[in-house]
Amino acid sequence: MKKVIILGASDGLGKAIASLCKSEKLEVINISRTPCDISGVVNIACDLFIEEDINNAVNVIKEKYSDFDAIINCAAIVAMEKINEITYLKFERAFKINTIAPLYFISSLFDNIVKNEADILNIGTTADLKAGFNDQLAYTSTKYGLRGGSYNIGLELAKTKSRMIYIHCGGMNTQMHEKDYGKKIEDPTEWMNPRDIADIVLYLLKLPKQIEITELTVNRKKRRLIQ
């Protein structure tokens, strides 16, 4: 593996993955609205809410970085609102960024993925294994959509050497919640370190091609899933 495309490497888990990739001498292309400030990372400006931006990013990839080995999708917003107060715009933004944008991006590069025998890794959530959480109707719905789309991509790739990997990831010590609705994590020690999840991501992608970890759940200690 030499070249990795990351959706959302400007912060949080995506940035942790980018940092780890650079430390291992991999070329990293970041797709996000805000640039990643890690030295050596190639930034392609893209607001995942805007179709034209995604199309432009896809065209740049095809022209300059078409020989990629993996696409890692970390882009997401929480879209937290009380169920009787959530706005249409919040729903729209959440679905476009969390579901439509990454699936559309992957589908637009599908021929390159197959040609390169590249792998895809989507970061989901433990919320898409159950009913979700209070005040997260939009977020939970979008991640169920990403999960279903990932299953379909896996089906399309079944006869190729490319792998579709999906991680149901629990809460991490990032600014994701603070950025969306202004709430800081009260005790960071209770939340997972993004660098640890980044280690898992790279481990999965480095496995021999005859091994495919289709789905994996990584959660905080004591956060047992209630179906």
Structure characterization notes:
The structure is a single chain. The longest helix has 21 residues, at 88-108. The model has no long low-confidence stretch (mean pLDDT 92). Helix 5 (137-156) links the parallel strand 5 (119-123) and strand 6. Helix 1 (12-23) packs across helix 7, helix 2 runs parallel beside helix 3 (88-108) and helix 3 (88-108) runs parallel beside helix 5. This protein is 41% helix and 15% strand. It has a single domain, classed as NAD(P)-binding Rossmann-like Domain (Rossmann fold, 3-Layer(aba) Sandwich), CATH 3.40.50. The chain is α/β, with parallel strands linked by helices.
Q: What are the main properties of this structure?
A:
227 residues; seven-stranded parallel sheet; Rossmann fold; 7 helices
Can you summarize this structure?
With 227 residues, this protein is α/β, with parallel strands linked by helices.
Which spans have pLDDT < 50 for at least 5 consecutive residues?
Answer: none
CATH superfamily: NAD(P)-binding Rossmann-like Domain
Helicity level: 40-55%
Strand content: 5-15%
- Overall mean pLDDT: 92
Structure class? alpha/beta
CATH topology title: Rossmann fold
The CATH class designation is Alpha Beta
Integer count of domains? 1
CATH-defined architecture: 3-Layer(aba) Sandwich
What's the Cα radius of gyration? 17 Å
Largest sheet: 7 strands, parallel
How are the strands ordered across the major sheet? 3-2-1-4-5-6-7
Q: What is the helix/strand order?
A: EHEEHEHHEHEHHE
Q: Please work out how many helical segments DSSP would assign.
A: 7
